[in-house]
């Protein structure tokens, strides 16, 4: 029997995740004239990407509308920083420029995310979240190849709702039940002077010896907002710091089990680094929905995009 290494298994899962594309494939010729122009702009702006760390240039060209009905194209590239966290992605760069000029309704956005082999990757969770704020129905044209053919879908498709039916929390596995109890008990520790929306999350994961532990996180806000940490991210980072990174399940209390975008894109992006098969349990009162990072962050931007 052929023995398969963990790396090979991981690579196979990554390859599978990479083929689960969002949207429909459209050739460049079949795009509308304004869409062709947007796609061409993404290539141009990607040339300005400042990417000394990743060598992964990204371009975004965003068609947006202001309250007077005027439309304009805004461009953005990724701008990296030696402090990884200070990097701004191309999509958010374009989005914030549009907002600064008063163009608050996003209509269409073309994206090119390219590694050494060519374009094709999808936006990260944080950019998905920001695009969603200004255009749930905006059209995404994600460049698929060097010929500028695209995958076409809606921004809302990037952060969908969980699809499974709710189950009673009493029916969950004992370890999941324990996590739900801990969530509820820990809410009061959340530090949320700005949002006043306390959240808690538990990350259940295994270490390399197969031991399973639970790691708690609560919201930790600060006055600069962007430096705040979501409860989910704190929980996952606690797990990683202790060496518990395998078979991750994130248990989190949400406002609605059926709404789109139940967990912030950034949290899903952090979970994605635990692997494309990481699980999510959404909890609302006495009911829970079982989901996964592949469902809530479809066609995710993962480590495979950078190789
Ligand atoms: N990046 C983007 O610009 N947009 C995305 O949606 C994903 C990631 C950038 C950030 C960093 O400069 C590089 O791509 C590698 O992650």
Outline the low-pLDDT stretches: none
Under the CATH scheme, the architecture of the largest domain is: 3-Layer(aba) Sandwich
- CATH superfamily of the largest domain, by name, is Cytidine Deaminase, domain 2
Named CATH topology of the largest domain: Cytidine Deaminase, domain 2
Major sheet attributes: 7 strands, mixed
Q: Mind telling me the CATH class of the largest domain?
A: Alpha Beta
The number of helical runs is: 8
Helix content: 25-40%
The radius of gyration computed from the alpha-carbon positions, rounded to a whole number of angstroms, is: 20 Å
Hetero compounds: tetrahydrodeoxyuridine
Beginning-to-end CA distance, first to last residue: 29 Å
Give the overall pLDDT as a whole number: 94
Helix-strand pattern: HEHEEHEEHEEEHEEHEHEEH
Overall geometric form:
globular
Q: What is the strand tally? A: 13
Structure description:
The chain has 2 domains: 7-19 and 161-305, Cytidine Deaminase, domain 2; 31-158, Cytidine Deaminase, domain 2. The strands form 2 sheets. Strands 1, 2, 3, 4, 5, 6 and 7 form a 7-stranded mixed beta sheet that branches. Strands 8-13-12-11-9-10 form a 6-stranded mixed beta sheet. With 307 residues, the protein is an alpha+beta fold. The mean pLDDT is 94. The protein has helices at residues 6-19, 33-46, 90-100, 125-134, 174-186, 231-241, 265-272, 293-296; strands at 24-26, 58-65, 71-77, 105-115, 118-119, 139-143, 150-154, 167-168, 200-206, 212-218, 246-253, 279-284, 287-292. The chain is 28% helix and 25% strand. The structure holds tetrahydrodeoxyuridine (THU).
